[in-house]
Amino acid sequence: MSTIDIDPTPGAALSPHLYMQFMEPLGSSDSSVSAAWDAVREEWRADFLAVLNDLKPGAIRWGGILSSYWKWREGIGPYAARQAFPNFLWGGIEPNHVGVHEILDLCRKSAASPIIAVNFAADGRPEYLKAPTGENRAGTPEEAADLVRYCNDPDHSERRGNGQDKPWNVAIWQVGNETSYPPEGQRFDSTSNAATFQRFARTMRQADPSIKLIGWGDRERKSGKWWAPELLSAAGDDVDLVAIHMMHQRPEFEDTVLAGERYRKDYDKAWVELGEIYETVSAKLGEAREVISVSGSKARLAITEGHLSLRPHNKCPILREWIAGLYHARIQNLYERNADLVEIATFADFFGTVWTVNAVMFGSRREAPYLMPAGKIARLYRRNGGDRLIKASTSNNYLDIAASRRGRNAILHIVNTDLHNAQSASFRLTQGRLASGEATMIAPGSPSASIYGSEFDELEEQHVKLSATDGVVSWSIPAGSVSAIELQISD
Hints:
Elements: E1 2-7, E2 20-23, H1 32-35, E3 37-38, E4 43-44, H2 46-55, E5 59-62, E6 85-86, E7 93-94, H3 100-110, E8 113-118, H4 126-129, H5 141-152, H6 157-161, E9 172-175, H7 190-207, E10 212-216, H8 228-235, E11 241-249, H9 267-295, E12 300-308, H10 322-337, E13 342-344, E14 349-352, E15 358-361, E16 370-371, H11 373-383, E17 388-393, E18 399-406, E19 409-416, E20 423-429, E21 434-442, E22 462-469, E23 472-477, E24 482-489
Helix pairs in contact: 5-7, 7-8, 8-9, 9-10, 10-11
């Protein structure tokens, strides 16, 4: 039997924004945002809101690449007067039924903090500086500041005239999205990124000095050069958070079982390859920590996008199966263990109809929206988590653990990475005694257990009461399971 030693001393705060969901209209690639909007009633679908309130995200981010050509004023006021625009990246036409008011209404209805990505001078991308329609879709610092005022000024007459009397008080704003990803010459360089961020930051803070700003500091794709050092050196205290994305979570070799349905012939090999991808995410997070530490900045990290990127593009069927849920739980444990640095994080896109990288999926109009395995993990962790980081250690290498504390209770998120065998464990405190516990877990007994709609769901949560003997709680952790274990501290 393994021993899990828990030091209950409260450490860094765990931000609720660690459980963020990311929303971007995906045009003709995935009906995404429009699928959740009832255009007849001009409101969010009630069945979608029910699933959202079950998921309870700590934050919802609006943005993505759309922000490079999004003009916020086109999506306010009466629907009939709003200006539709082409979704230049993903295809189709965006009718702008979902604009500033609708985004922030969704956040309010789900009690999620809004994070808004502004149009950062089109991220310097020529295809949006002069769009195929001939117009310049780049945003300016003044436009971004006007949006801050529109959202946060208590006496903003235009907003009040559009039906929103009280300000939304949006606290967090992202300035720059995947700015370093296109090839050199097709976006800002690192120097322009830092200088342009500084202009945006100072203009936006004139509108509201209390806001927190996220600047782009990720690596260049081709060279691997980090942009964070130059951003932090030039902009200094103007940067509250450094944005990176955990995209391209995929094997870097052709003969992978993580393509199409090859994985179904060998789940053990698929799990090994997913473990290798996990290590690349862990390594990048370690690099980001080192980069920020060396700079001497107090800025924290915002992982504002990231998901498995398997073939076929964003539609690999493995994402409907429990083995993907196990992977996502390991990723979230990684972010929680680094909560002293990571303030904002996500491991899936939010909702849609086609892409299986979503947390929430829509079927036909006759089918209720439902949670994917990634959504199941997001819900489990969000509902069963603490607010202060603590330490938990074990010599059992099959157990992936993140630990936190809420009041007098210790909460452990545990992934049993052994697909075939349960792992017996004793939980004990390094100081004090445990009185009892309860495990909320997903343990379907097979990595191929799946979700294929609201009526075909093999991933139900189970609850197990745990008792203590002499201040120690013992339990056999099922094979290939994810558990949130809440332990009551007696003294």
